[in-house]
Write a structure and sequence with these properties.
Blueprint (H helix, E strand, L loop, with lengths): L2 E5 L6 H13 L5 E5 L13 E3 L7 E4 L12 H11 L4 E4 L1 H9 L3 E17 L4 E14 L4 E5 L7 E3 L5 E4 L7 H10 L4 H5 L10 H6 L1
Parallel strand pairs: 1-2, 1-4, 2-3, 4-5, 5-10
Antiparallel strand pairs: 6-7, 6-8, 8-9, 9-10
Amino acid sequence: MPKLLVVDLLAEREAFGKKGVEEIVRHFPGHDVLLWAPHTNEARDYGFGTRIEQPIRSDVVVITGSRRNVSMWEDWMDEVAKLIRDCEVPLYGICFGHQIICKALGGEVQRADEGSSFLADVTYTDGTVKRQLFTHQDHVVNPGEMEVIGSSSHCEIAVCKHPTKPIKTVQFHPEATLEVLDYSLQCGDMNQQEREDFGDGIQDENVSQSLLN
């Protein structure tokens, strides 16, 4: 059975952690799910997947979002950066994952004065426009080895792919489905105002459409 390694950087959260990862792995049917959370000793028991202490050889790697910041580097991020540089299998990054992949491959990340939490249009280099959900304050300002293929009005480097390796990253959260957002409000991960920032919460593309195409 192929192995999916999720670098689970919201493992302490119920909604964007458990429910978000559940939505991610739904798009990798038939995979043995491995969960690695190097940033915390308090990872939740999701009721699925196997928690591991160190990354092991896998067939696919996904790096999730995080409450931590690439612009405020912590020691555990060195391990994630090494995984990225050594990776020889398809690698996908979401939000924090997008940022640390670009950083590890020679890019740069800077923190904006204010956070961005809303639905916004992403314009791709082929002219396609997609509405996606953003919640972040760090921004990739130099993609390093990565090629920029999508931008939004507030975020110039919103979608990247590697020109020769199977790596793709997005600054937005395609796993934040309407179900995940509503559950986040229900379980207390998000307050009413935070939920209202995302309006109807409907995105144009999901994990498969935005990352795996």
